[in-house]
Amino acid sequence: MLHFIKEIKQVNDNYKVVCLFNDGAEKTINLLPLIEKYGATEIISQLKNPDYFKTVSLDSYGTLTWSNGVDFCPDVLYAMA
Questions:
Q1: Domains in the chain, please, with CATH?
Q2: 14-39 pLDDT, tens per residue?
Q3: Handedness of CA 36, 40, 41, 45 (dihedral sign)
């Protein structure tokens, strides 16, 4: 099954996002490991700023995205949670 995010329920200060997926599962996704792993790149490093991190939104495909173009595949996020 392909997963997509229907709703962002909560964005926490500790780089965690609570999401409602298309199968009805509500999952908490800890994005800190990805931010730490890829944070050396200029674009991902922007997510280290908690205020910027909280600007996350959903695109029309049910993907977490930020205005700088960073996005994360919902299937990967589902498996991580």
A1: 5-80 (3.30.2020.10)
A2: 999 999 999 999 999 999 999 999 98
A3: positive
Is the predicted pLDDT of residue 79 greater than 90, yes or no? yes
Calpha distance 74→72 (Å, rounded): 6
Task: Copy the structure tokens of residue 30.
Answer: 């800890």
Question: How far is residue 76's CA from residue 74's CA, in Å, rounded to a whole number?
Answer: 5
CB neighbour list of residue 76: distance below 8 Å, 6 or more residues apart: none
Only one residue has tokens 């498996």, namely 79
Its pTM stands at: 0.91
The beta-carbon contacts of 33-42 under 8 Å, at least 24 apart in sequence, are: 34/72
Task: Give the residue from 23, 22, 25, 20 showing the smallest Cα distance to 9.
Answer: 20
